[in-house]
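Hi R.,

Here's the chain you asked about this morning:
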Amino acid sequence: MAKIHTLKIANYRGIKSFEQVFGRSEFVCLVGRGDSGKTTILQAISAALSPQWNFNFYDTDFHNSNIEEPIEITVTLFDLPEELLTENKFGFYKKLLNSEGQIVNSLTEEDSEENLDLLTLRLQVFKDLEPKWQIVNETENLEPKDISASDRSKIGVFLVSDYFDKHFSWSKGNPLYLLSKNSDTKKEDEFPILAALRGAKSKVDRTSFDHFDEIIKEIEKSANNLGLDIKNTRTTIDFKDVFLSEDKLCLHDNHIPYRLRGKGSKRLLSFAIQSELVKAGGIVLIDEIEQGLEPDRVRFLVNRLRKQNSGQIFITTHSSNVIVELNANDIYLTKKNCSKLMPFDTEFQGCIRNNPEAFFTKKVIVCEGATEVGICRSINEHRISLGKDSFSLLGIGIVDGTGSNFIDYCTKFKKSGFDVCAFCDSDDKGINRKKEDLRILNVTIVDCNTDKSIEQQLFSDLPWDSVMHLVEYVSSEKTEEGIKLLINNQYGVEIQQDWCDKDSQEIRDTLGLAAKDKGWFKRIDHGEFLGQVWINSLAKLEGKKLLEQYSAISSWTDNV
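And here is the predicted structure, written out as tokens:
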């Protein structure tokens, strides 16, 4: 069964124009905000490769409901069943994927074992709402050739969404049907589902329905009086309308149909069925894979699907538990109205592990460390208290740059299509040298005065009573006397008995340096406290760097 190399979508639902080359990728995870098009992409694949002959379309399936512009979904496939590549099927429409990853015409390129056979399937829907599935090869100027539902079923694609109860029946077009069709137990002269139904019919025919014997005897007498011999008449089930159809043959848990089980159990069983399918090379589309599953179960599920996959799997997710189980190059970012996906390279792996939630946002504030992360959280709480939109509502994520990875994270997020604000100190010469590179990438930089850390900036700019508030906070762990001795002994600054009552720039500078050196606030919760003190002092920060920093973050936040 086939895999998808290239997907093109035009005028389908929320997508005006889209094209993505997946190459030989076998596991694709689509992430992004709600309404970014993730589900639409899966549904487009499902529609284009659907084994149904009567797939329904509506005016609302057209982009902006504009029925004057046809829906067109084009899928280029490889690893196709050989029977679709014969000359009496679609062999003349074949293209080749060469060893360099280029698509070339099969008639002009010398065939080799390194080349892969490709077919391009196109679904078109015009305003009459009648879908048309065809195999096309525009480069050879060939007239499109219709492909039947039966031939499309050989591609083997299935969508797991909220409507997966049909996956538990053996009817045509479902994964169980395809598995049984490909089963080694199938005899040459009969299909296993039909054989099972005939066996069931035979068993029912041997059953005695003696409840009706007396009535049958009376009817037999009446028939004899009319000259009709019905002495061999008996009661059994007519399978024509009652049972002899594949959709009536379903999986049960003891005597209970599996469709009546809980959502999580049903999804897991559906995944189990389709994991067998992809072992044989099928395409499985799973929308919101985490639905109905506990975090540990969904992580285990994703891990197993990746390791046992011999086909091709497409999933969408809003769960950080999912993407931490994936390789960076399995993940593709979807953004609303974008014409292609944004891939991530393997160098992004650490960032994904440390900040999975950020990959579901539109914009990110990359913080140099935990202190800045806490400050940003306090700024967000302040916005909410003022009745402004929260970071979550605006699609803004907070990323911990972990110090040494700060510049790298800023660069990677920006190149991956995120709007980035870099919130950092100015005391690290290595980071300072690379800030200009970030500005060239149009990264917004919010930093401190020259050679200052955020702790030094706070102790320098805050009103004296707020400075003492910070000292009291630290004193809860280190005692005020301990801080005094530290400053006296280690920094050589004489502090008088009444030092808390007198504003002193020297003491401010020394406290800021001690806070930086000793890591007094190097935790997110400590950073949240710093942010609260900072925000409570905004009215007294006229002309100070802290007010400029706060205003810069606020301006960037509101520029959505």
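One quick note: Residues 188 and 399 are 60 Å apart (CA to CA).

Cheers,
M.
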